[in-house]
Specification:
Layout lengths: L13 E3 L2 E4 L1 H19 L5 E2 L3 E2 L3 H20 L16 H22 L1 H16 L4 H22 L12
Antiparallel strand pairs: 1-2, 3-4
Length: 170
């Protein structure tokens, strides 16, 4: 069945009139394989200890699962999208987005001790959400508040990992 964008089928490779039209499906499949490999290799370490909680293999296992599931999600949803033939660097604001993401990721280790985990993660999440998606400020603040509070709760109370408190001191 042929859609309006001319694809004959959607799978690992998408073909358009006999020539490969898009490489993203291959990249998505690579992420699925890579995430699965990391998860499987991390099982050789202790993932969870009932007495002390997460083991040495927990973070690699969780990261591998997230990578594989993200790749699977992209693989499935990318089939139905009509993609433009614009390169990333030709999109207006692409350089700005990359620069803001890099600034945000560099700010975390620089200001973690002084501002504390909760405050720096909140501020960086606002920066990342606004740089990538450009929602309204209220939505960006709510998303940043929810995500930073969730991460804080998981690491502080579930994993019992002490995080830098900074100026908030709690």
């Amino acid at each position: 069945m042929r859609g309006k964008n001319g694809f004959l089928f959607c799978g690992i490779l998408r073909w358009k009139y006999g020539e490969m039209s898009n490489y993203p499906q291959i990249y998505h499949a690579v992420w699925i394989v890579l995430g699965s490999y990391v998860s499987l290799k991390s099982l050789s370490y202790k993932v969870w200890d009932t007495a002390s909680g997460p083991g040495a293999g927990f973070i690699p296992f969780a990261a591998g699962v997230i990578i594989a599931l993200s790749g699977l999600y992209l693989f499935i949803t990318d089939c139905s999208k009509v993609q433009e033939k614009k390169r990333f660097w030709e999109i207006q604001g692409a350089w700005r987005r990359i620069l803001l993401v890099l600034i945000g990721f560099c700010a975390i280790p620089l200001f973690m001790k002084s501002l504390g985990f909760l405050l720096i993660s909140f501020l960086v999440m606002i920066l990342l959400v606004r740089a990538i998606d450009r929602p309204k400020w209220a939505i960006a603040v709510i998303m940043a508040l929810f995500s930073s509070a969730t991460i804080y709760f998981v690491f502080k109370y579930l994993f019992e990992i002490s995080l830098p408190t900074g100026i908030l001191a709690f």
